[in-house]
Design goal:
The complex is a heterodimer of chains A (about 190) and B (about 250). With about 190 residues, chain A is mainly alpha-helical. Helix content of chain A is about 70%, strand content about 0%. Chain A is built from ten helices and no strands. By secondary structure, chain B is mostly helical. The chains are: A mainly alpha (about 190), B mainly alpha (about 250). The interface between A and B is large, with 76 and 78 residues.
Chain lengths: ~190, ~250
């Protein structure tokens, strides 16, 4: 932690909202990106970030300096986004993943890599459909593992799952994406 | 047909959720099994394609203004985060231990533990005291060091996986640089040469990351990947935490 950061934290703890703003502002855009990855749209990400910053302000007393301030803030933002995710539409029962063959999902396509199967708008639409079909746990677990590099034993409690369920959620997310990106195989 | 399931392959890709023995088995299987290598390559292509196409919606130019217009009223007027006891005891603020002072305290604790340890053969009660001091100081050091290594891993992963997000990696790395030096010195003084050497190895990477402006240079990302530094940092943090767990279990 820099000296300046320590000073801002000290001032913010005494109730100086402008000091809190100075402290947090450099992190706002990266945090918005994290929330947006989890929630899928900019407006929801902004709502989540607003909640996160208010929670951070209220919880500033609990920041003990053992981790970097940015990491601490990152976790609060992820929790706020996950909270929003849980409040969303109920999960659908539809699941296109075939669980019969645990070894067949990642066999390479005869026609080449996933980039070659679809391109441009078609590719983006398939991925958007696949993401819309992910459950909250699948989306949260995949984003946290793949983009935010959280270890499984941190993702699981954040999502209210045990570690095995968390592994399953990531695995199912990857398989759904695989199916969406390789339509020729799933259609054959 | 390979005996490695798709789920294991996903976990292998992330180097997470598999025990070290199984990781080695899969590494061996990859060496001998061409089909397994193709499956792993296909998985990685899928993940790369998904990551590439995952919607990126950059916040617009008015984002900060809009955000703070909403946040400031909620935190500004009469909503001080400081509880009454903190305001009342504000006069002791200068005594709060800064990270550097805290690290110095850890070093001092290690030194005391070491010095007490020198008298072990002379005096039995002093020996017990030295063991306790050594144990307590080492546990404090291990806990802080594990958290430090996890943060370092995160900075390197941001640098390698989101090179455009250089600001995040830069901020994280500059926060970590000073404590990395202190931990390296502490490890060397405690006779943990391999750990000290690894921390010294991280230092130039943290310096480069903290000097990056806007985006991480591809060469730096390549270096982190080639030397597997993020994985090594995670492994070191996990080893420290396992040792902490074992120590705690023994004391029960």
């Amino acid at each position: 932690m820099t000296d300046a950061q320590a000073q801002w934290i000290k001032a913010a703890r005494r109730g100086d909202a402008q000091a809190f703003r100075h402290l947090v502002e450099p992190h706002a855009r990266p945090l918005h990106r994290v929330c947006q990855r989890l929630l899928g749209d900019a407006a929801s990400a902004e709502d989540a970030l607003q909640d996160a910053l208010i929670n951070a302000w209220r919880g500033l007393e609990r920041f003990d300096g053992r981790s970097a301030f940015g990491s601490w803030l990152h976790r609060i933002a992820v929790n706020a986004a996950l909270g929003q995710l849980r409040q969303r539409r109920p999960e659908t029962g539809f699941d296109p993943v075939d669980e019969d063959d645990p070894h067949a999902g990642f066999l390479p396509e005869a026609g080449g890599d996933p980039f070659e199967h679809a391109s441009g708008h078609q590719f983006g639409q398939r991925l958007a459909d696949a993401m819309a079909g992910l459950s909250h746990a699948e989306r949260g677990a995949f984003v946290l593992r793949h983009f935010e590099h959280y270890p499984l034993d941190e993702i699981a409690p954040a999502l209210g799952l045990n570690v095995n369920a968390c592994k399953q959620a990531i695995f199912r997310a990857v398989r759904k994406l695989r199916i969406a990106l390789a339509p020729s195989r799933s259609e054959s | 047909m390979s005996l490695v399931s798709d789920q294991e392959l996903v976990l292998f890709h992330y180097r997470d959720g598999l025990d070290p023995a199984r990781l080695h088995e899969i590494e061996d299987a990859l060496f001998f099994d061409a089909e397994l290598r193709l499956r792993l390559a296909a998985l990685r292509e899928t993940l790369a394609a998904a990551a590439e196409a995952w919607p990126r919606c950059e916040a617009d130019a008015d984002f900060e203004q809009r955000l703070w217009q909403r946040v400031m009223p909620a935190i500004g007027a009469g909503a001080s985060p400081a509880p009454w006891h903190r305001r009342w005891l504000a006069w002791i603020e200068p005594l709060r231990p800064a990270p550097v002072a805290l690290a110095s305290l850890v070093l001092a604790a290690l030194a005391i533990g070491y010095l007490l340890g020198q008298q072990r053969s002379v005096d039995a009660p002093a020996a017990a005291a030295s063991l306790l001091a050594e144990d307590a100081s080492a546990r404090v050091l291990r806990a802080y060091l594990a958290a430090h290594l996890q943060d370092t891993e995160r900075a390197m992963l941001v640098a390698t996986h989101s090179p455009g997000d250089g600001e995040s990696a830069q901020q994280l790395a500059s926060d970590l640089l000073e404590s990395n030096r202190l931990f390296a010195a502490a490890a060397e003084r405690a006779g943990k040469r391999a750990l000290g050497q690894f921390l010294r190895e991280l230092e130039p990477v943290l310096i480069e990351l903290s000097n990056e402006d806007g985006a991480v240079a591809p060469a730096l990302g390549d270096e982190i990947r080639q030397r597997d530094l993020a994985f090594k940092a995670r492994a070191a943090a996990a080893a420290l935490q396992r040792r902490e767990f074992a120590t705690a279990a023994q004391s029960l």
